[in-house]
Amino acid sequence: MSCARDLHFLHSAPCAPAGRCRRTQAPAPATQTIRKHALRSRRGGSGPHPAQTGRLCKSHSVSKNVAAAACVGAKNLHTARPWLQKTGTAEVSSILEEKILGADTSAALEETGRVLSIGDGIARVYGLRNVQAEEMVEFSSGLKGMSLNLEPDNVGVVVFGNDKLIKEGDIVKRTGAIVDVPVGEELLGRVVDALGNAIDGKGPLGSKQRRRVGLKAPGIIPRISVREPMQTGIKAVDSLVPIGRGQRELIIGDRQTGKTAIAIDTIINQKRFNDGTEEKKKLYCIYVAIGQKRSTVAQLVKRLTDADAMKYTIVVSATASDAAPLQYLAPYSGCSMGEYFRDNGKHALIIYDDLSKQAVAYRQMSLLLRRPPGREAYPGDVFYLHSRLLERAAKMNDNFGGGSLTALPVIETQAGDVSAYIPTNVISITDGQIFLETELFYKGIRPAINVGLSVSRVGSAAQTRAMKQVAGTMKLELAQYREVAAFAQFGSDLDAATQQLLNRGVRLTELLKQGQYSPMAIEEQVAVIYAGVRGHLDKMDPSKITKFEKAFLQHVISQQTDLLAAIRTDGKISEASDAKLKEVVLNFLASFE
């Protein structure tokens, strides 16, 4: 502000009639006040900045001092109005006085600190006395970080990015905001990082809403028991370990056993519901990739795009090359995006692939922050790390919109050891697990689900009645088959009942095999499983089961559309449908052989 100059202009009177310019003197109080304050501001303006580390910085520039001086001068001018009226400038002075008195002279206050040390993605910052836990802070280089350790003499900050851009002594300032991410339907079809920034090269997201990443899980009152099916399109899952909307079902197994394949098939299977117009049946998907290779994530996005599934999917990526804090944050960011749909009465599915790598990233951060290690060097709160994340998956009651968030966390085991620390933690948090075995995978049984160790604690309440009718006895038959198969290796003489059990078990195992990226509708699964559990395939050579299934499905889809529609709409197999299905199976078997 150049208030002093404007006032000087105001004091200059018009030229004298004789052609000589004469200067009119303003009343002494106003002139002396302005000069005195201007002189004081010149003396103080060239000194050092008053801000000190760890204290509130009060930035009073020269222009601010002049502004304050001008305000005092304006008040004195108010008393000198009679003199101004004589000079004919009353109107100008009134406007000027109004502008000066309305000027904002408040100091801009920012709480800052300085970097004491930086290394391994952890910054120790002196100052920031009022910073909150998990608050976003900004370094002078533009990098963002999150305060995690609040200690008496310093703050431990994890850096979201390359710490080589930060030097000792750099200024760090508070943002006053807890870490949040953009949410909304604008994110569908996009690939974002853990902070919600677009990384797919398709331009800005366009989302206007933001949501904190660390929100509290819903309480007991807003929830309701799981009752709607979340269909994966995989026969072995939908029949033996059914999943409901709002459930948390763990997918656990060694590396390269098909864990991600189950998750991707589940996303692709939702296309049949999302292409419809009924909002209550739609299921929006969020896939969180933690610690994976960039090439793997790129292949996954391409697969979803080819299947036309990206239009209802958000991919959150924190790859192996990203900083550990971003790998730690990514699941919470994805969960906040899913909660937007849940809290707006819609249904969402979130896949965490995988939480083992998130735990490793959190262990790295905790050890570097000097937190005491516990079992397997994980910090003491690693259980809370996963429980506070997975508890946010819920089925809400009608008073809270009736939406749901279903979670499919993935855990990678080492040599099939499910008794390790992280696997046991997550098994105890979730509502069941799908256990994949390397041995079954190499035998050609894919998906390689171990039916004996896999369980769904709440999903059976959500299973469709038609599937219950055909698959109700299948799990028991498969369990008995595995028990008898172990003894059958040692003895050749088996009674007829045992032989029958072995024959049925072999054929049911063959029937549950399924190719990757080929999910099936629930009514198609019912028709195929019906043929197996009712004994119609007991005399067929096991090697022909897969061929029979493919041909039978084509026949039913093309010739028996009314039967499939009846099963789909009724949700059960009526007496008429049962008789019709039996007739179709027998007629097809006669022509097939």
UniProtKB/TrEMBL annotation:
Q: Where in the cell is it found?
A: Mitochondrion inner membrane
Print the keywords alphabetically.
Answer: ATP synthesis, ATP-binding, CF(1), Hydrogen ion transport, Ion transport, Membrane, Nucleotide-binding, Transport
Any Pfam family the entry gives:
ATP-synt_ab
ATPase F1/V1/A1 complex alpha/beta subunit N-terminal domain boundaries: 110-176
* Compositional bias of kind Basic residues: 34-43
User: Which superkingdom, per the lineage?
Assistant: Eukaryota
The family database entries (HAMAP family) matched by this protein are listed as: ATP_synth_alpha_bact
> What's this protein's family per the entry?
Belongs to the ATPase alpha/beta chains family.
| Annotated PANTHER family | ATP SYNTHASE SUBUNIT ALPHA, MITOCHONDRIAL
- Report the protein's function: Produces ATP from ADP in the presence of a proton gradient across the membrane.
The name on file for this protein is: ATP synthase subunit alpha
Organism whose genome encodes this protein? Cyprinus carpio
